[in-house]
Amino acid sequence: MDRISILRKEPLTQRPSMGEGYYFLEEFHYRFYKDYMNKVNSPKLDMEKYAEAYFNAFSTLTPTISDKELIVGKCVFTLTDEEREEWKNILSPFAEKFTEGSAQGQDSHMAVDYDLVLNDGFNGIIKKIDGYLENCDEDKKAFYKTCRRSLEAVIALAENYSAEATKLAQKEENSERRAELLEIARICRKVPANPAESFYEAVQSVFFTTYALMLHPYRINFQLFQLGRPDCYLYPFYAKDIESGKLTKEFAQLILDCLGVQINNLVPFGQSVGYMVGGRDKDGNIVQNDLTLMLMQVVDDVKLVYPSVGFCYAEGMDEKYLEKACEILSHGRSHPAIFNDDVITKGLMGYGVPKEDAHQYTHSTCVEITPIAASNVWVASPYTNMLQLLLDILDREYSSFDELLKTYFDYLDKRIKENFEWKENTRKLRKEKSMFPLLSCLVNDCLARGTDIEQGGARYNWVMPSFVGVPMLVDCLYAIKEVVFDKKEITIKALKEILDKDFEGHEDLRLHLLNDIDKYGNDIDEIDGYFEKITGHIIEECKKYKGEILPNANLIPSVFCWVKHDDFGRVTGATPDGRHAGMPLSDGSGPCQGRELNGPTASILSSTKWPHHELIGGVAVNMKFSKNSLGKESVDIMKSLVKTFLKRGGFEMQINVVDKETLEKAIVNPEEYRDLVVRIGGYSDYFVKLSPTLQREVISRTEHEA
Amino acid sequence: MKGRIFNIERFATKDGPGIRTVVFLKGCPLSCAWCHNPESQSNETKIPCNNKKNITLKAPDFYEKEIEADEVLEKVLRDKDFYDESGGGITLSGGEPLMQYDFSLEILKKAKENGIHTAIETSGYSCRDLAEISEYVDLWLYDVKLFDDNSHKKYIGASNEIIQKNLSYLNRKGAKIILRCPIIPDINLTKEHFENIAKLSERMKNVISINVELYHPLGIDKAKRLGKALKYENDKFLTEEEVIPFIEFMKNITQKEIKII
């Protein structure tokens, strides 16, 4: 079995899921708070003691290196049952008091300044800090000193990995592995403390940095730091090593694959951590190099949920990069997601981001766009259930559809304002109570300003609310317009009563709403027009707000959902589009699941009739195909669909090539999969319409084709 | 002018190059035993049939309507961006599109005026002179079902003569042709049949490719929904493995590209 097949077993079999408590976080927090509580004995902040406890926690974690691993960064859970009890009963309540009020709100969801890490090393940053310390005001000194000690903590951690590797090498009988371990030992002694000088060193340095950022005393929950644009910052190292013959392409791929697996060991299920490739560099040159392809190849090699890879298409890019992305997707992988560089850069510049920062952004987990190395952006803050807002206002009759729409918008505006104030209050609390010195070392311009990231050190401090269920809202509004106002078949009151009872005894009305009323996503201009009306309103409304707690704090909207369409759906009553209570809301910004009846071209046209670029908080259009619908030329066809989507101004597209499992689900729940087309020979039909025997037949063929 | 169609299918990827819209014209002079579009055979107006069990589903079922050529064009042109990007366009299918020759001609002319690629999927069974229409067809997807004329009459319901004559004519005229060869177990899944296809393709200079279409029983399901029965019913899919030896054999005879679709 090859190395990656062996390594990928570990996250598949041993990784705990979110909510079970994440072992190395608990270990870290135990060590930090044990030390801090001993020193301070009261839950108030003492920066000097904080820095010491932070250093001690990092330097006493127990590293572990698995056989075959080339990129290291896991630690052992060493807490005894007694110590776990101590954490639960004594330290954890203390930690809660210590972080009280500061633990709310979104954070991480960004990529730090990896160029700085690789080119200066942590020691280089320390040198800079020493410079600031010599000239700064007295009140900044504690901040700089804590930053300095935080960097030393990570260096100490790396040194422990070096020692562990040396120890393992001494015991290792296999001479090949012994050599690998000695190389790991050498690298961990060197980075991230010093500038990286080889490709391998650079990758390890980046992983250490990301790993260390995940461990934060103020955050008991998991942090989601992204790896930014590795085909930019790693490329100089790669090119140099390939040129000198020190590195082969195969070994470079192996290192990247090892990095890919290690991300899975670090991040629990149900989250999203990864990197972005392609797009443009600071100077606006298209990024298209070997690493762009190889970093995508990682998805196909490791075949795990992470890394979440975003591929950024820039106009003028060589075709083979998009082809590579489509090829991987055609294998049934859920990544890369495809982003539109030109649209996103335009959007960022519209919010006042200078060109060099507007080219270097990342998808900060799913589709939320934040500038790299300079952001403290709160993404998805908060999610708003657009359907609940509609149900709320159906408590009375309206004289016209326009009046209803106006009422809806007024109500939505009120919610936007409340949410904005809520986030401002949270920021105020965090500004008073929280800090993150290590992160402040790596995000511009915290060190230059002498200001912690929590106090406004970052260049961009946006808040990005996300509005969930817009496609379904469009369907509902249009249905109300049709049955209540245009055709006068029912009053609002009667409709609301039926919705409250989840259509009980009114299946005929439900089917009428579901089937006879046209839906968004089918290239019908009138309905699709409502999407723009709603997003246009949201965009303009958000522009009215600017946070005052932190500088440069625009309110920038998004229309994606993560898993919130499901969460919200469960608690949202029946809706006027014929959806039953408890069923999911629409995901993303494409047509609602199962409501797309005219195929992917119509769906793409509908999804690009409204401008995407100002929704920098994130737009996601999901498309799914059955494995056989695309045919043997699937990569070309997919590429054409994607390129048309991008040319028409699409922001992001996620493609799922549907597998057997989905077809099975479609049998159980046909209404949700009405749009699923299967093709056999020159003939196609809707999967859910086939007789049960044929459905089984198609499934067995799909399995065959997979 | 108006014509009769029974479906317009967007995002077709197997009926010519690129992403295409297929317009299915109603009416067919033939009655293939295994017909997979039985709803197309008659050119009479029928009440669309719903499967009661699936009454909750609004996926487009068979419909048939009289429609203006301009309206067809308007629908087809909505996907022009996709054709431009993928090299796709419009494909006329059926039924037998040549049965509504003038209607087909008008659609094809207008498609060419709008700069999109045109293809026609045909049995070749038409008494009309193909000279005019062939000016507006970029690609012919031309059926080859059976060679023996008696079998042809038995399973297809007509002689092969006109079909062969029209194919020769198109080839001489320099039309671009892909042979579409449905392979039906019990009827033409024989070495001899594949040999004949290969020889035919070699004889015809302008045949660019051979598409081998594997039998599937989906037509039976459709026929049932229409309340019809097919002359040939076999519920098994023909698999690639079953035809691969024959295709390997064909490669000894012809240099033309052979694709299983």
Order of helices and strands of chain B: EEEHHEHEHEHHEHEHHE
Give the helix level of chain B as a range of percent.
25-40%
Mean pLDDT reading of chain B: 89
Radius of gyration of chain A, whole Å: 26 Å
Order of adjacent strands in the largest pleated sheet of chain A: 5-6-7-13-12
**Roughly what is the average pLDDT of chain A, rounded to an integer?**
92
The parts of chain A where pLDDT drops under 50 for at least 5 residues are 16-21
Structural class of chain B: alpha/beta
Query: What order do the strands of the largest sheet of chain B run in, or round the barrel if closed?
Result: 3-1-2-4-5-6-7-8-9
> What share of residues are in beta strands of chain B?
15-25%
Q: What's the overall geometry of chain B?
A: globular
Largest sheet of chain A: 5 strands, mixed
Task: Tell me about this structure.
The complex is a heterodimer of chains A (706) and B (261). Chain A is built from 29 helices and 15 strands. Chain A has 706 residues and is α/β, with parallel strands linked by helices. Chain A has a 5-stranded mixed sheet. Chain A is globular and about 80 Å long. Residues 16-21 of chain A have low confidence and may be disordered. Chain B is an alpha/beta fold and 261 residues long. Chain B has 9 helices and 9 strands. In chain B, strand 7 (177-183), helix 7 (191-203) and strand 8 form a beta-alpha-beta unit. Chain B starts with a strand and ends with a strand. The relative contact order of chain B is 0.15. At the A-B interface, helix 23, helix 26, helix 27, strand 15 and helix 29 of A face strand 1, helix 2 and helix 8 of B.
